[in-house]
Design brief:
With 153 residues, the chain is an alpha+beta fold. The protein folds into two domains: 104 residues, Aminopeptidase (3-Layer(aba) Sandwich), CATH 3.40.630.30; 42 residues, no CATH class. Strand 3 and strand 4 form a beta hairpin.
Length: 153
Amino acid sequence: MITTRLSELTAEDLPALEKIEKATGLTFWGRENYLRFLREFPEYFGNKAVVYSEGNHGCFAGFVLARTIFENLEILKLGVSPEYRRQGIGTLLMKAAYSEGIRRGCRRCFLEVRKSNSAAIRFYFFHRFTIAGVRRDYYTDPQEDALVMERDI
């Protein structure tokens, strides 16, 4: 039997988070930045998904990092390890972020996504996001525009 549990993202999770970011093409922001976000800034929060199956002690399968700004929830990063994609883990992480955003008084959710990341864009459309605009040359390495997406929560 396989189960997935969500819990708070902590500093101890950074090595596993970095591995997922490398495997998914996300840019690791540096250990010091993540430590500051998780320890010093109360507007930032994150969750991790750990998958348990028979005989395993749990595998870090994905994470979400977000922040609240007044009535807005901003999804900063969402990553699911390639071997655990299309199993509902991304959806669980998004729902956890929405719940925390609502608890903090948020009404809208925003995010940026690489214009070429069609799989992520489909995922966000599935979650009722719409395109609100474009940020020109937002990403580097390689340089690329970002789509700004939004939805009510």
